[in-house]
């Protein structure tokens, strides 16, 4: 099982780049299969580019730093 605290630490590394564009990211949860659920906030929430932000920024960095992460999905 992935430690949510470790995921939060990695999100802290990503957060400044998102905040520079008026957005943010919050950890919602981590499941036993390595799926990380996050909520994009601020300018990122509802942005047409948010799926790219998730895939190219958040997911890529999390997978690089925590190999057990299988994917990152937005909160419903």
Plain-language structure description:
- With 76 residues, this protein is of the alpha+beta class.
- The chain has one domain (4-74): 2-Layer Sandwich (GMP Synthetase, Chain A, domain 3), CATH 3.30.300.130.
- It is 43% helix and 26% strand.
- It has helices at residues 4-20, 50-65; strands at 23-30, 35-42, 71-74.
- Helix 2 links the parallel strand 2 and strand 3 (71-74).
- The protein is globular, with a radius of gyration of 11 Å.
- The model has no long low-confidence stretch (mean pLDDT 93).
Question: Summarize this, please?
Answer:
This protein has 76 residues and is an alpha+beta fold. 43% of the residues lie in helices and 26% in strands. It has one domain (4-74): 2-Layer Sandwich (GMP Synthetase, Chain A, domain 3), CATH 3.30.300.
How many strands? 3
Succession of helices and strands: HEEHE
CATH topology: GMP Synthetase, Chain A, domain 3
CATH architecture: 2-Layer Sandwich
What integer value in Å does the Rg equal?
A: 11 Å
Helix tally? 2
Q: Please, what is the average pLDDT?
A: 93
């Amino acid at each position: 099982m992935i430690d949510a605290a470790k995921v939060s630490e990695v999100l802290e590394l990503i957060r400044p780049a998102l905040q520079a564009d008026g957005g943010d990211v919050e950890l919602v949860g981590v499941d036993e299969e390595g799926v990380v659920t996050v909520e994009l906030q601020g300018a990122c929430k509802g942005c047409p580019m948010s799926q790219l932000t998730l895939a190219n920024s958040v997911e890529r960095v999390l997978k690089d730093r925590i190999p057990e992460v299988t994917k990152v999905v937005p909160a419903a």
